[in-house]
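Build the 3D complex.
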Amino acid sequence: MSEAKPPGANGRIPPDALAELRASVRALRGELERRFGIPDTNVPAAAEAAAEALDEDDVFAPDDEIDIERPESPVGWLEGLAQRVREQLQDVDVVKLYEALRERVSIPGAGDVSAEVDEYGLDDRYLARTRRWLDWLFDRWWRVEVSGIELIPDSPRVLFVANSAGILPWDALMVAHAVERFHPSKRRPRPLVADWLATLPFSQSRLARMGAVRACAENAERLLSDNQWVIAFPEGQKGALKPFRERYRLQRFARGGFVPLAARLNAAIVPVAVVGAEEVYPILFEPRVLRRLVGVPVPITPTFPLLGPLGIIPLPSRWRIRFGEPIWFDDVPPERATDPLYVNRTRERVRGAIQALLEEELPRRRSIFS
Amino acid sequence: MSARRPPHSVGPGAIAITGLGTFTGAHIAERLLSQDPPPRIVGLDLRLPRRLEGRVRFHRVDLTEPTADSLVAEILEKERCEAVLHAGFFTDPYADLEYAHELEVVGSLHVMNAAAAAGVRKLVVTSTAQVYGPHADNPNFLSEDHPLRPQRDAHALRDRAEVEGLLRIFAQRHRALVVTSLRPSWIIGPSYESLVTRRFEHARVVTLLGYDPLLQFLHEVDWLAAVELALERDAPGAFNLAGEGVLPLSTLLRLAGKRSLPLPHPLLYRVAYLDSIARTGDPPAAFYDHLRFLWVVDTRRARDELGFEPVYTTQEAWMSFVVSRKLRGYR
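Done.
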């Protein structure tokens, strides 16, 4: 083969090389027939087609000219199929296929995480993987309808204040997801989650990887100072565990520590009303005895603990997330930010704003599922 | 190191190191002696490490003796000591709780009083960030002003927290004295040996089922650099020290190729109780709560006021430890 001449300048194979090639194809065909007794099946057919193609002026014929004809015998047809599959497989990147498959079947919490997390434990890779599930929950399970996203200012420090419900922080994840998905800045606010979740086995590490931080004044201050967006649920545990009959009635806003914080750091407060989240776990009652016994709140819902782990599946109610007009603290002098009367008044103003948004949104749905 | 140091800050006085035989004491003595010109080092301990023989002025002092304070004061005055590094603490919890208390709390009190009596200008104490205690209601970052809440049963850490309390009162009474307390996170590295490194050495590490806290590490080299920096510069107060970044325990183990053995904590705390008491004097919770709750420290103050910039990040410190232990396996 080493003395085979390269194709000429006009792209043609020299005639002597062509004859040599043709002869070797014939010899191979004869050899094949002699060994396996294969009659005129597709392989020699292809070879013949190739040999014939060599006769043509255009040696570099497109593939379809050497197309494989379907032979009559079933064995030949099967072999033809195998050949086709083999040809197809040559183009497939097996590694890529495996990766795609892995991504599709991976469950959040199991498997790969990145080797670096940010200082609060947020793991970008984990988040990217869970986003698929969050999207599904957002679009399919709760069919979330978002409004007022244009009211969110594009300022470095924003404190979202929302009504809280549902024992697990689904509402926190969905609000964060809504902002990230629909706001032009694509920023993902960090939810502050209840204290007792910080001690709850299995949940805490997952929440931290998704960006949630334990709700306390130090964390909120540090996050806002670092120009992060934060979601607070000032109702706290009282809100998350309120019984079903008190849904959408905002509880007392703890001590309202978020007001002086926002005023001091000049963060805009955006009231958020989440409708639908308060029905995902209809709490019948939450016995204090059990809380003392177990150490964490044990709410009784129609499905939990009756159905065991299945009771953790949230009800697929229809959600509406509505963002309200931001409250600014630009013109508030620093000494007023710590005035208890001012703080209390502002706190009630935020609470009133959220309650008003809730009252507006609630009549717009016919049932909790529509 | 030496380029950054203002030449006058150490001065003509000597540097006294109590607890010369500890990792910190011995290594700081070595580092100071390698400076040009080397300062005079006065070592106080029960015995002199062999490699420092003839290079430091050694005095045998037992800090648990009732009159140790006047003895130390006498030495400090006679040697014209300018700064004292108090490193006389146990690296690990010591099972003899009474003796540990005598050495760590009463011994520290002796050193403080002696330093004040001898007119020393600076006192640097090696504390630990574990004095904040791992708690469910800790914020993500503990600042130096956060209350010290060691666990109720962790006697060793309660002693260290008591020392911190005494030190604060001492600093208020003696305002002329520069009192620095260094609170490092878990120190880790190729040669540092402690309860922590021993727990993480095995190919299978016991973890608590359902918990995956964020951890910080400080490399031993960075720790020594921080102590040296505290001796060079006048930075009164407490300083948290840790490498940059935090990592979840599960990620650390994955990086190291180690496997975890997750056990439910109610089980582990009961089963390992007696063994742990016998070995360390503390119940298992004293250590394992650190693998359960957050106790990540905020190191911004050390960077701003002490000028401490760790060379190793948490991940690098951990990898350095892991690699050194793997090499050790091929002896």
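The interface with chain A takes residues 136-137, 139-141, 143, 146, 208-214, 245-248, 250-251, 254-255, 293-294, 298, 315 of chain B (CB under 8 Å).
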